[in-house]
Each structure stands twice: as C-alpha cells, then as structure tokens.
C-alpha cells in the first residue's frame, strides 16, 4: 500500500481538503452527512461503516465499535474514539438511544441499510460538492487522510494501527511517509 498512485498523485486528502469535505457534507442529506462524518472521523472502511449497527455506537464510551471485515474472520472488533459531534449526529439522525432501548439493543438496526455502491455514490457526491477530484476523492482517500492526520498529530503508530484495524504495523507506517504540509508539520515537531 502506498500514498501515491502510479502517476504520482496523492491518494489521501489533506487537512484542508478533509475540512472542505466535511463542510460540504453539512449540506448533504442527513444519512449521507452522517456516513461522510463517520468515514472522516473514524478512518473506517466504507464496508465497515455500512455494516455498523446501532448497538455498536457506544455513546457513553465515545467510540464506534467496528467489525474488522478485512481480516476474513468473524468476531474481530475494534473501538475507535470519535468526536462528540459525530455521536450526537448519529443519535439525532439514526435514533441510537431509542434503538438501544429496544429489545436487542439495535443489533439488527444497521445505520445505513445501503449497498456499497449507494454508499460510494453518496460520498462521491459530497466530494464533488466540495470541489475534490482525483484519487484522493474517495472513501479510501478519507481513510488515508485519517491515518495521515493521526500520525501528524503525534498519535503513536500502534494506536493508529489499532484504530485502522491493520494486522501489520508496517502497513500503518506508510502514513509516516506523508508529504507536503503534513510532512512539514511532522518535521516542525522535530525541529523544536
């Protein structure tokens, strides 16, 4: 896995691009907005977000608990801390508290009962509204942006690995290869 495609184009959104994406998401339909926020603030894969049921939104703990779908085993979960604003939006739009009070605690209530393609189209529409295009303007670009932002903020690689659900630390280490403003931010910390 690399942060640039064969043509040398960046495959992640910068901090400014991610902020533009989130501003554009505020104008999207409610369900699309919460999906976009979830992808941007958790770094999860699109398929993991679309599989998220109400019972794995831990409002008290401040985390979303994702089933890690890439490891090809059932029962592997990871908790990712997310901002309170995301949790509030999920509760408002998807009725998390209400679903968790019902029998089964919302285990069968997927937040977005959409296909992968429908989810991708919703994210792509917000990317277009934000004026973003190219390889970075995708759900994967948001995942990579999360990794770069986490490393740039000084989050230890082992925590980023846990949050992204990577089996190998070497996969997570690619986010330390960020360039441009992100690389300058990392270098500034070293300079003092």
UniProtKB/TrEMBL annotation:
CDD domains in the cross-refs: DNA_BRE_C
Signal peptide from the UniProt entry: none
Alphabetically ordered keywords of this record: DNA integration, DNA recombination, DNA-binding
InterPro entries linked to this entry: DNA_brk_join_enz (IPR011010), Integrase-like_cat_sf (IPR013762), Integrase_catalytic (IPR002104), Tyrosine_recombinase_XerCD (IPR050090)
Domain Tyr recombinase: residue ranges: 8-188
One Pfam family of this chain: Phage_integrase
Family according to the record: Belongs to the 'phage' integrase family.
Protein's UniProt name: Site-specific integrase
């Amino acid at each position: 896995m690399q942060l640039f495609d064969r043509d040398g184009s960046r495959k992640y959104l910068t901090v400014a691009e991610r902020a533009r994406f989130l501003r554009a998401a505020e104008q999207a339909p409610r369900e699309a907005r919460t999906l976009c926020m979830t992808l941007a603030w958790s770094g999860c894969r699109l398929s993991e977000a679309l599989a998220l049921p109400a019972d794995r939104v831990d409002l008290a703990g401040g985390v979303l608990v994702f089933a890690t779908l890439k490891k090809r085993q059932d029962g592997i979960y990871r908790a990712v801390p997310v901002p309170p604003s995301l949790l509030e939006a999920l509760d408002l739009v998807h009725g998390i508290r209400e679903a968790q009070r019902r029998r089964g605690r919302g285990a069968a209530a997927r937040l977005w009962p959409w296909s992968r393609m429908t989810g991708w189209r919703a994210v792509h529409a917000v990317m277009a509204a934000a004026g973003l295009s190219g390889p970075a303007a995708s759900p994967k670009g948001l995942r990579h942006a999360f990794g770069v932002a986490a490393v740039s903020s000084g989050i230890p690689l082992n925590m980023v690995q846990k949050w992204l659900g990577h089996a190998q630390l070497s996969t997570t280490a690619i986010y330390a290869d960020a360039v441009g403003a992100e690389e300058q931010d990392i270098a500034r910390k070293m300079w003092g």
